[in-house]
């Protein structure tokens, strides 16, 4: 299937690993020109040939600086993928039923909601000129906030509402906004000893591999296995493709059957 992405100019945030890296790889394979944004690059990201721009999106001023840099050489932008998210949960946050301190909430909201809002704000003039597409990466936690910090679930739920509302507001501009909602995906947030699952396992006195092995069943995934980042990337490409002009304001679940409501 030709997705008509060859030659498109794409910006992906949170691009150094996991879903972001897989998304960069998928767009490059389609012949797109990709700008990859993250705090630090990685050998895997460098191997894609994407243009790297360093930025810490916890800084509210970073999105506009990123867009100014990206558009300085070429004012064209066809696709924005807001993937930056996650965050590092301290042990005290994991133990807090409210989801952490005021400061912890501020950081989680800034990274998982604020960064997407401000990247979108900065990119809209360029995307309006190309009648481009925005794809935001959410989480099944937004609709099933069990067993995750409530700050993270609330931030992703807000991202869903922002995406759906803005899709309505921008209908006349031709800019399409959609969301991909992954379930438990094999990324560093799950597999790294310093990630959420690693810290959660340690707090319960369990081996991390034991917790990971049990996660699909406990999450209600009918597939029985974690999702690979490349599968999320394929959903992103479809929603970004000009061959899907009627996909507007959609939220595609790629969650192994975690979410049970139709």
TrEMBL record:
Task: Tell me the ranges covered by the Ketoreductase domain, including all copies.
Answer: 8-187
Keywords attached to this entry: Oxidoreductase
Q: Which SMART domains match?
A: PKS_KR
What the entry lists under Gene3D superfamilies is as follows: NAD(P)-binding Rossmann-like Domain (3.40.50.720)
- InterPro entries the UniProt entry points to: KR_dom (IPR057326), NAD(P)-bd_dom_sf (IPR036291), SDR_fam (IPR002347)
Residue spans making up a coiled coil are none
* One of the GO biological process terms: fatty acid elongation
Superkingdom of origin organism: Bacteria
Q: Which molecular function terms from Gene Ontology are attached? A: oxidoreductase activity, acting on the CH-OH group of donors, NAD or NADP as acceptor
Q: What family does the database annotate?
A: Belongs to the short-chain dehydrogenases/reductases (SDR) family.
User: Would you tell me the protein name for this molecule?
Assistant: 3-oxoacyl-ACP reductase
Organism of this sequence = Amycolatopsis rifamycinica
């Amino acid at each position: 299937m030709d997705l008509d992405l060859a030659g498109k100019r794409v910006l992906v945030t949170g691009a150094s690993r996991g879903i972001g890296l897989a998304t960069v790889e998928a767009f490059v394979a389609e012949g797109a020109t990709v700008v990859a944004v993250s705090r630090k690059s990685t050998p895997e990201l460098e191997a894609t040939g994407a243009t790297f721009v360093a930025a810490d999106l916890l800084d509210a001023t970073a999105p506009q600086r990123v867009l100014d840099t990206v558009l300085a050489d070429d004012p064209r932008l066809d696709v924005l993928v807001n993937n930056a998210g996650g965050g590092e949960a301290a042990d005290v946050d994991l133990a807090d039923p409210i989801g952490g301190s005021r400061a912890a909430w501020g950081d989680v909201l800034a990274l998982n909601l604020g960064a997407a809002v401000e990247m979108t704000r900065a990119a809209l003039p360029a995307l309006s000129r190309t009648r481009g597409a925005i794809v935001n990466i959410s989480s099944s936690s937004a609709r099933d906030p069990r067993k995750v910090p409530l700050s993270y679930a609330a931030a992703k739920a807000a991202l869903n509402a922002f995406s759906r509302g803005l899709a309505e507001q921008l209908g006349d501009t031709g800019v399409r906004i959609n969301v991909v909602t992954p379930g438990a995906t094999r990324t560093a947030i799950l597999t790294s000893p310093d990630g959420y699952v690693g810290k959660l396992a340690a707090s319960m006195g369990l081996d991390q591999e034991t917790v990971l092995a049990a996660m699909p069943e406990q999450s209600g995934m009918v597939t029985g296995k974690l999702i690979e980042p490349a599968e999320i990337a394929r959903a992103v490409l479809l929603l970004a493709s000009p061959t899907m002009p009627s996909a507007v304001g959609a939220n595609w679940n790629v969650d192994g059957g975690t979410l049970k409501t139709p």
